[in-house]
Amino acid sequence: MPDYDPVCLAQVLDELRQSRNERYREASLNAGLDHGALRRYICDGRRPQRQALIALADHFSINPNELLPLAGYPPMKLFERVAVDPESLPSDIGGLVEDLQRIPDRAQRRKLVEAVRVLLAGYLADFED
Q1: Which of 10, 24, 114, 120 could be stapled to 39 by a disulfide with Cβ–Cβ 3.0 to 4.6 Å?
Q2: DSSP label at 49?
Q3: How many CA atoms lie within 13 A of 41 on its CB side?
Q4: What's 83's DSSP letter?
Q5: Of 13, 53, 14, 17, nearest in space to 33 by CA
Q6: pLDDT per residue over 109-124, tens digit each?
Q7: Alpha helices of 1-129 — where are they, by DSSP H?
């Protein structure tokens, strides 16, 4: 197991927590962890167990493979996503994907993706009625 450097993981976890406007305790409990777990990972630099990272990823609606390597764990094949070749997408969709990928702030990008999903859900609901 490689040496664990808690700085990167702590930064990502704290950004995710702040994007949800949650306190450490609240985020820990919402992820199904004990009340002090997230504070230990962010403030104390403790290394989370793999299961805790998977629970946090589920709570924050991200792929666990985004967190596992930051804690020194290998990515899990179970969570691998199939890459889509942008060339295989219609040009308007491929352009949207490329635009979203250029947003460096992960939390901001996630908010925009969720906003697009809300718009799509409303649009698609019109066809289902």
Answers
A1: 24
A2: P
A3: 30
A4: P
A5: 53
A6: 878 888 888 888 888 8
A7: 6-19, 24-30, 37-42, 50-59, 91-101, 106-128
